[in-house]
Design goal:
21 helices, 3 strands, single chain, mainly alpha, 3-stranded antiparallel beta sheet
């Protein structure tokens, strides 16, 4: 058992995914002569080691399905369900969300009949991830709440606790509560860092992203000072530092240059990409308002040239800002000119008068009821 575990870890360290997959298949005769509990432990450990490599050889789903079939034929129910829990994440990362949800529903029904709360929590967490990717935040939040409720009654290993915290942070980020999201990402980072898991880097990236979205880019550099910055230095962290610098300078051109330079690091992570869109819109808005503030009448072409963006994008964004009442003005599309008005404060007298009348009406109603009781 120890030799197989060591060999699996060695092959994973050397990034030999195909050799590790072959090892998992070749040990089945040996598994028949050891106890069921030990055999299940060996298979699960080797499969976890193989899948944690993240090598994307295309063997992941077929190998997992093959192991599930073997476990079913050997009537090893717990192992079958543990492997199916991993299969859900594989379907999720592969973009097969229908299969992932179908597997979730089937496994949840089976697990509720048994008393394996840790596995139940893992499946509920996977369900939350699938719904989040599909954009169904309420269902993702409900699944995560179920997972946390289950976790409260059992011991949760650091790696699994970190996964829960990471998902909580992501969902808080979706709700624009980046202060709470940062706290969860920090917990997730510390947990993954304690077991030296590669997801610790993602936790640190999301911490930096939260600070950027909170409008505190200066905090990014302070977070990266010391051992943390040295241990996880690389292009992923450099990308977040560059984004923070663009946010600090409120410069859309630096932001676009950073996106182009770190395209792989930023666009391949759906969480980062999602929030960068919001940050881009915010920066663009601030840049446009800063450019048009000194003018009462300005050509849209001049604004587009100043900000180095296509004319139609600038025109569309200006119309959106006007509709959102970020500033007063009109677009004269015939002459391609933006006419800016001085912002006038709205007169609240009418609103206050209506509020006063409403409150007086309530007072009169109360007095009328008291008068009726006296009579």
């Amino acid at each position: 058992e120890l030799a197989l575990s060591s060999m699996g870890k060695l092959l994973a360290k050397q990034n030999k995914a195909k050799e590790l997959a072959n090892l998992i298949k070749s040990i089945r005769p040996f598994l028949g002569i050891v106890s069921k509990a030990k055999a299940s432990k060996i298979v699960r450990e080797l499969v976890d080691t193989f899948l944690d490599m993240g090598s994307k050889t295309g063997l992941e789903i077929p190998l997992c399905l093959e192991c599930i079939e073997w476990a079913k034929s050997e009537k090893r129910t717990f192992l079958t369900q543990a492997l199916e829990a991993r299969l859900i994440l594989l379907y999720h990362s592969n973009g097969d969300y229908t299969q992932a949800l179908n597997t979730v529903n089937r496994v949840l029904k089976e697990l509720k009949k048994m008393d394996d709360k840790q596995l139940l929590m893992e499946v509920q967490l996977s369900e939350s991830k699938v719904y989040h990717t599909l954009g169904n935040v309420p269902k993702a939040r409900a699944a995560l709440t179920s997972a946390r409720t289950t976790a409260n009654s059992i011991y949760v290993p650091p790696k699994l606790q970190s996964a829960l915290d990471m998902q909580s942070g992501i969902l808080h980020g979706e709700e624009k509560d980046f202060k709470t999201a940062f706290s969860y990402f920090y917990e997730a980072f510390e947990g993954y860092d304690s077991v030296e898991h590669p997801f610790a880097l993602d936790g640190l990236k999301y911490m930096l992203l939260s600070k950027i979205m909170l409008g505190a880019p200066d905090d990014v550099q302070s977070l990266l000072t010391g051992k943390m910055g040295l241990k996880y230095s690389g292009r992923g962290i450099d990308a977040m530092k560059a984004i923070a610098d663009a946010g600090k300078k409120r410069d859309i051109s630096i932001f676009n240059e950073t996106i182009a330079e770190y395209d792989d690091e930023l666009k391949k992570d759906p969480v980062v990409q999602n929030h960068l869109k919001a940050l881009y819109d915010n920066l663009l808005e601030k840049n446009l308002v800063r450019i048009i503030e000194p003018y009462s009448r300005v050509q849209i072409a001049h604004v587009a040239e100043t900000i180095s963006l296509p004319y139609d994008i600038v025109e569309k964004k200006l119309s959106q800002i006007i509709l959102d009442k970020k500033f007063s003005g009109i677009l004269d599309q015939g002459s391609g000119v933006l006419i800016v008005y001085d912002g006038s404060e709205s007169d609240q007298t009418y609103t206050y008068a209506l509020d006063t009348i409403t409150h007086m009406g309530k007072v009169v109603d109360v007095l009328f009821k008291k008068a009726q009781k006296l009579s």
